[in-house]
Amino acid sequence: MPIELKILALSAILLLVHVFAAAQAKTKQYGAEWNMGARDAELPPLNPVAGRLVRAQANFQETLPIAIIALAGVVLAGRASGWTALGGWIWLGARVVYLPLYGFGVPKIRTAVFLLSLVGLGLAIWPLLFG
Asked: Which pTM was predicted?
């Protein structure tokens, strides 16, 4: 199996980590009844940590489709290489590091890690655009 597909499988697990981290933080603030209910009631704003985890999840969900297109695309096009695998690993590794940085509110390093993840995506998608 191409390593790019394994990276995508691991990214699915990372998505679950994002979903559960944000849900756990929201449940801690709003309570189990809210979590198990219809969630129709107006609620106060999220506390800072829960808000950051929700935003980190949204940010991951914004870049995940790009990674899917890039990594699955190079496999389907027969353009997978060591470079595309490296790009996928850079993207995934940066995204793993990004979550706790955002959760703990680390500003500038978090942005640098996000930019590094984009470099990884660039390496992965390059062969589809210019290969």
From this structure: 0.94
